[in-house]
Amino acid sequence: MNILTFDIEEWFHILDNDSTKNELDWNKYEYRLEANMNRILELLSKNNQRATFFVLGWVARKFPEVVKEINSLDFEIATHSDLHQLAYNQTKTEFKTDLEQSIKSIEDLIGKKVRTYRAPGFSVTNENLWVYEVLVNQGIEIDCSIFPALRAHGGLKHYGSSEPSILEFNGCSIKEFPINVESILGQKIIFSGGGYFRLFPYWFIKKMMNESKYVMTYFHPRDFDSEQPMIKELSLVRKFKSYYGLNKSFQKLESLITDYNFIDIHEAEKIVKWENVKKVSVGV
Known about the structure:
Layout: E1 2-3, E2 5-8, H1 23-26, H2 33-46, E3 52-55, H3 57-62, H4 64-72, E4 76-79, H5 92-110, E5 116-117, H6 131-137, E6 142-143, E7 165-169, E8 172-176, E9 182-184, E10 187-189, H7 194-199, H8 202-211, E11 215-216, H9 236-243, H10 246-259, H11 265-271, E12 279-281
Parallel strand pairs: 1-11, 2-3, 3-4, 5-6, 6-8, 7-12
Antiparallel strand pairs: 7-8, 9-10
């Protein structure tokens, strides 16, 4: 099962960086989303590939025509929050308000129910598992926020599953599509999105794809924009993570789209036999 997803945000939506933290900061930068999305949508349509798009509420308001185009092509639209803030930096009330605004902005625009969510930066940790109470209470039925390994912005290292599962917390349950993790020499390896996809050579990505029964990709329009400006305030390490491999990444995406068949989360949900999947209780 290969699932194709994109997190729809601008190139400057870089987390945990003071100069790109909020809407006032974003106004200082040029917009590149529309051109980047045109390339992605053209590629997917040309190859008849399905995908789920996790859209920011901010994007739905700022670029309504882009979101309408995604919808008109019959791609699934989910929410990636409203203002792209790390979930563990928000209070429960702030998280709820942000989620409500994102859902409203998207649903008002496309006239369809939003059922699926992914946290910015996969920012769910053991300290903010209450997000699942909020998600369920707001009508979210599917989550894609679990990163079952350590990472800079969170990660649930001990989640115990890198395949579709049922996540249970404090009496709530939700269908979970986590990021896939493969073990090499005792180390957990992620290859299917973001900086990992740009870092690894394509032959390695193809090897991992061929050996994996379940793959959850997660790409961003900025991952394929080799001409985007560099944010000067980033550390050398963050610059490497954010900009390495941009000159070859779209070519790699083209190869991936050509070499493999993908489905969206909606189709994946129908394929999974939920009565047989692992139930994972968190926060206990």
